[in-house]
Amino acid sequence: MTEIFDISLPPFERGFHLITTHIESHLDNLPENGLVNIFIQHTSAALTINENYDPSVRVDMNNISDKLVPEDESFYTHTMEGSDDMPAHFKSSLMGSSVTIPIRNSRLALGTWQGIYLCEFRNRAGGRRLLISVIS
Amino acid sequence: MTEIFDISLPPFERGFHLITTHIESHLDNLPENGLVNIFIQHTSAALTINENYDPSVRVDMNNISDKLVPEDESFYTHTMEGSDDMPAHFKSSLMGSSVTIPIRNSRLALGTWQGIYLCEFRNRAGGRRLLISVIS
Amino acid sequence: MTEIFDISLPPFERGFHLITTHIESHLDNLPENGLVNIFIQHTSAALTINENYDPSVRVDMNNISDKLVPEDESFYTHTMEGSDDMPAHFKSSLMGSSVTIPIRNSRLALGTWQGIYLCEFRNRAGGRRLLISVIS
Known about the structure:
five-stranded antiparallel sheet
């Protein structure tokens, strides 16, 4: 059985942000065993799983992604929505639009050092909509 | 319950291609709520979700991926199948071999601007086989 | 219905490693149709699907990822755990923490040339824990 519900994230600034606690606060009554898919309904932000402890990881993740996909490349043709827009699209596919996480003992079975990241690639984004699917 | 079926895509030229309509035309009788996984059975093409409106995004996505993973690097050892082959393998892992999308109200719950892309990384590929899994 | 179980992988050296046979040896009694999610509980290694035949692909995959995310960039701030650590975190998000694969006829429905890779990004990693979720 699949249950689906929405989460609205408030606006975050450009960068990588730990949202595990925010997500878990919406996950009441998880099944004993199952699978969660968290899906972002946008193409200039992404979700990924990475280190949950040292904030310097998130700083470096953002800087590496900016270096990999620079703004204002001379070959870009999709330039109407600002310098951050086309890189944001490519980065969103690099990181991915959803994460899938097992549920055990009615909890997200993340590893000790794993957290869920929102990757915000726009300079001035609004809030982001997530869809949470719980498969039992 | 999981239902699985095949889709054969016709050959596409190298580049990023919007295939949402093609996929949806095979998705009759979706459950009210559920999850779809679309899986490509190849290692030199990929699936991703990105902007569904402006074709310039697909052009730039392709050019960025070509710049990130250039052909004919002197350190490549897997060179027997042509200059496009090894970059195609790496790009397929960068973009991913499947996408997972929630189903709501018996429809793919994509965001307003989201579409499903086939990323074709070979110069002269044949058709591609997809497996669609519908979890209800 | 979702069934979940653990697999412990032995330590692998830095690089890309084919683990399909290892995974399949733990997959007895798969349902006729279904979906498997394989999830790695670590943030400096990853899972992906790629070419299962020519070992030179795995060599080049590793070298391309090292070139894309070099060690010792002057802008890195997360440097306490060694030169390989911050690149390992970024690469793990590039490749992804899980793969999802359809089950048909009680077998993983991989394409002819597809295999499951462990991407080990640390120089001296220990064993890695995987969670396998089988949805029927």
